[in-house]
Amino acid sequence: MYSFDWSRIFSRPARAGDLPIASEETQPAAAGHWAGSRSWLPAVSRTVLALGWTSLLTDISSEMVASILPIYLVLQLRMGPLAFGVVDGLYQGAAALVRVAGGVLADRWRRHKEMAAFGYGLSAVCRLLIPAVGAAWGMIAAVVTLDRIGKGIRTAPRDALISQRSSEPALATAFGVHRAMDAVGAMLGPVFAFVVLTSMSGDFNVLFVTSFGVAVIGLGAILLFVPRLVPGERRVTSTPVSLVTAARLLGGARFRALVFAAVVLGLATISDSFVYLILQQRFDVPLSTFPLLYVGTSLFTAACAIPCGRLADRFGRARVLLGGYGALVLVYVALLLPGWGGYLLLLAVMVLLGIYYAATDGVLTAMAAAALPVPHVGSGLAVLVTAANLARFAASVVFGFLWSRNGTGSATVCYLAALLVGMAAVVPALTRTQPRAN
Amino acid sequence: MPTEPSTNPSPDAPSNRRNWLAFVVLCIITVAGVAAYAFYSRGKAREREALAVTAAPAGVGQFAETLRPPCLLFRNTALGPSYGKLSVAPLNTPDGVRYPTGLDCERVYATRESGLCLQAIRNAFPIFKAVSFGERFQVLHTFNLKGGPSRARVSRDGHWGAVTVFLAGHGYASIGFATQTILYDLRSATTMGDLEQFSVVKDGRPFKAADFNFWGVTFEPEGDGFYATLASGGVYYLIEGHISSRQVRVLRQGVECPSLSPDGRRLVFKSRRHDRGPVHWELHVLDLKTQQETTVNEPRSVDDQAEWLDADHVLYGLGRNIEGSGTWDIWVARSDGTGTPAVFVHNALSPCVVRP
User: Fold this and answer.
1) How many other C-beta atoms can be found within 10 angstroms of the C-beta atom of residue B107?
2) Which of A178, A351, B53, B315 sits in a 20 to 30 Å window from A271, CA-based?
3) Which of A71-75, A279-283, B107-111 has the highest mean pLDDT?
4) ipTM
């Protein structure tokens, strides 16, 4: 079905991939530079694969800790969900600020790899800091914030690298491969945590050290297997990149339309935590199975991300993106169905949420990367992700408020209506940004 | 945009073999390091266990057969075959010989006729249960719980039971974690529902929020009245309610894990102090009539639902300073703020005084 079109890569002037020129092309040993050239596997550059492995390992590492931290915190500190929500909002804010800074600086210095590796390294160090600071609440909050800052720093430069080292027509596929590996990591993390804790009879320190080890290997993958510069990659000699140029990117019609779409759709998004809480309330699912819901969603995201990326490259990214939000519409409808399905409904929601993530996250990033001028991809992606996250955060706050005032039913109806209106509103903008309709 | 294609492969373009070698070396070092640490931790854990064993002074007697008040019930944490068992000690020599029962309990509470024992089977898919037992420690009924045991109480007449468990969530950003408090009718072995289903009244008006958490029920000496803690929006309220009316009323703030004195006039509870760094709880005693509050002279942070030994003394569990050894002692302190705390029972947790 999918085959790699070499001629299209070479003929594309603005965005060179990991071009297997001269020396590499003549050496059969270097054929691994392009993984999976067989037709049933998507062909992505070695950079994308290496970044995929880094993300996979880093996600195992962070989810290992994330899946046990609330137990640790609740038992020690008795924190209420509201306090937790507010604190989480502050962390998100901190991450948003450094995300833009990370994107802009990576573009300015043209050091995307180093910037991403720095972010991964910072988060790796945090794994060791958690047991080091002991049970002091303020210090744990600081470490968690530092971890979020690491995540904020690395996201945009990493996605810029993926876009720089992939061919434009296969961008969504490249992001699909990366996001699939990322989701596999998110799925394995809680499993790793469980195995370590049971085999070490509940020694949390060993868990943190193991998590650090996994993160170090992930850091090794980006440092050793992502070339800093790729032969044939276009070097931009003068790229004045700053916060001002990042803001000015919104002047571009295609990029502005994508940011608009991300914000409008983000404002109508119910976060998955709320979705699962609603299901828990309705079906009286034991809350101890909560991690399983996330594992299940990650499983379906991992399974669908690559097909969604390939569909997007083939039949139009805007269509797949809207299809993903269509899956989210079905999730809302499932939440409103009166007394139907039980565990079957739970499974359906996991599948739909998996499709939603698979069809939106990587695809939107690919669309933005294609719409941005090459020297500004990092800062542009940072602006997009920050705007989308702010919209989603606002949506969560409002949803929590509506829930506590009027219950889940009417809140869900409001969001369903908002999402349908939002989808209708972004269709013209999205189709305009898709001049390419092969 | 002025661009200049780099025609030569960059000098730092990675050479495959060297990088693979470096990666393999990195993996070996990391795995070896983690394994070494895990091995070292296991050794340390064994050392701590040995230390805990030598620190255990109490003798273990033959099995307790019947509940003979007055006596003290607790979870035995002295290492040995009776570790984790519900154990009994006479009130006049509490730290002398202890008599284990066949029940494994993480928390326990009982009165003359019946009791509640919270059990946890912590394996791959943990199972949590509340078991009601009779005066010969025989299991009467089993209720399934949804999370790890935290608090248990039984009313004086043995009619009502209350259990608080921790429900875990996912991710430090997730909102899905909470406590759950369930009330039981122990006579008919039925569940009276979750406290979250009760209507709450605050300042004469209905009070409802999505972030409600209830814990730490204590029953009034007679009838179906109780006190408990309700947390919402970072505030910890003392509530009072009745099972039959399914209604609770907010009384005041800053009260966690209340415990009513035998005469029903005073509450001992955990009071949060924020000026002492990480969360620190003091034990306070509140006179319900005069609203006068006394601080128990216990400088360490107490995270337990205290139990009244008699009109003047309270009992509570405190972890010993051998980190991670799971070793606790039951301490006794005066409720009027004078005196100094002393160990009441070594290697024990979850004190419950059974009165005649």
Assistant:
1) 28
2) A178
3) B107-111
4) 0.76
Order of all β-strands in the sheet with B139-145: B107-110, B115-121, B127-133, B139-145
Q: Which residue's entry shows tokens 């039959």?
A: B244
Q: What are the b/e assignments for A51-80, b being 16+ CB within 10 Å?
A: bbbbbbbbbbbbbbbbbbbbbbbbeeebbb
Question: Taking the CA atoms of chain A, what radius of gyration do you get in angstroms?
Answer: 21
DSSP reduced 3-state for B354: strand
Eight-class DSSP state of B135: T
Q: What is the mean pLDDT of chain A?
A: 79
CB of B200 closer than 8 Å to CB of B229: no
CB B165 within 8 Å of CB B146: yes
Distance CA A410, CA A279 (A): 15
Q: For residue A121, give the nearest of A110, A113, A131 by alpha carbon.
A: A113
Which residues of chain B from 182 to 221 reach within 8 Å of chain A, CB to CB?
A: 208-211, 213
CA distances from A201 to A189, A226, B48, B168 (A): 18, 38, 14, 18
Residue in A74, A228, A403 nearest the CB of B12:
A228
CB contact under 8 A, B210 and A77: no
Prior bond to B70 cis, omega within 30? Answer: yes
Which residues lie below 8 Å from residue A237, measured CB to CB, with a gap of 6+?
Answer: B2, B3, B4
B275 pLDDT above the threshold of 80: no
- Identify the burial level of A240 via C-beta atoms within 10 angstroms of its C-beta, where 0-12 means exposed, 13-18 middle and 19 or more buried: exposed
Whether B323 and chain A come into contact, CB under 8 Å, resolves to no
Structural tokens at position A399: 């949803």
The pLDDT of residue A194: 80
Among residues 73-112 of chain B, which lie with CB inside 8 Å of chain A? none
Q: CA of A82: how far to CAs of B176, B252, B257, in Å?
A: 11, 20, 20
Contact B305, B151 (CB under 8 A): yes
Asked whether the predicted pLDDT for residue A120 surpasses 90, the reply is yes
Do the Cβ atoms of B41 and A84 come within 8 Å? no
